[in-house]
Structures are given as structure tokens and as C-alpha cells.
Amino acid sequence: MVENYETQFVTFIESEMEQDLAHDLNHVFRVVKTAKLLSKIEGAMLEVVLPAAYLHDCFSFPKNHPNKAESSRIAADKALEFLNEIGYPNEYHDAIKHAIIAHSFSAKVQPDTLEAKVVQDADRLDALGAIGIARCIQVSTNL
């Protein structure tokens, strides 16, 4: 079921994401790929994980912005507005919102569900290794 919405998720993030090379479409696609794998291993519900993984950075203040810690809450609200527009099942909305809010390190929100943990882990794993170093350099040059 959720796979039927993936094209719409991609179209939305393509139009909404700011020009931030550290949080670009490639970052989102890597997070989604990792989240799918982790969901399969851990038994997480893709109906929550996929929308949250695709939409987790649909809004983000720059790293040095005084309201940076609010980015994930704003992204979650924006994501739910979009999910309502496309008719995504309401039964998953609260869990998706929590997963998007909890993915952020700066929000300081603990993930309370397996699905939120999967999205958070997938996002944080993208900060490791060569990709993570390149993303860190990109963010640093924009501060």
C-alpha cells in the first residue's frame, strides 16, 4: 500500500527541500534505503517508516539558525499537511509525526516507537563514513 505513495513523496520533497547539499535528495534517498532495510530486519511498519523517512527533512533551518531545534516539528507539521492532501491513511499520522520529530538530534526528543527508532537510526547512519564527512564539510562551509 505505502509503495503506491512513493512517487508522490518524491515529487513533494523535490519541490519543498531547500538547496542544502548536506540534506539534499541524495541524503533522503540514502535514508529511505537504509530505513527500508532496517524495517525489514526489525519488523517495523513501512506505512510509518517510509513517509517519515522521505519527509523527515522537508523543512530545515540552517545549522546556525537560533530556531534549529524546531526544524523537525515544522517538518512534521508540513508533512502531515501534505499527507492529508494526498489522502494518506490518518491512522498512521501520529506515528509519522513522532518519527519525524524524534529523528532530529537538536530536537532532543526520544523515539518512543520502533518506527521512530528506525528513521532516527537511518538518518544518523547517513552521517557516518565518507558520506558523513562530506556532508559535515558542506554544512561547515555554509556557516
TrEMBL record:
Residues 24-128 form the HD domain. Coiled coil: none annotated. SMART domains: HDc. Gene3D superfamilies: 1.10.3210.50. Pfam families: HD. SUPFAM superfamilies: HD-domain/PDEase-like (SSF109604). It comes from the Bacteria. This is HD domain-containing protein.
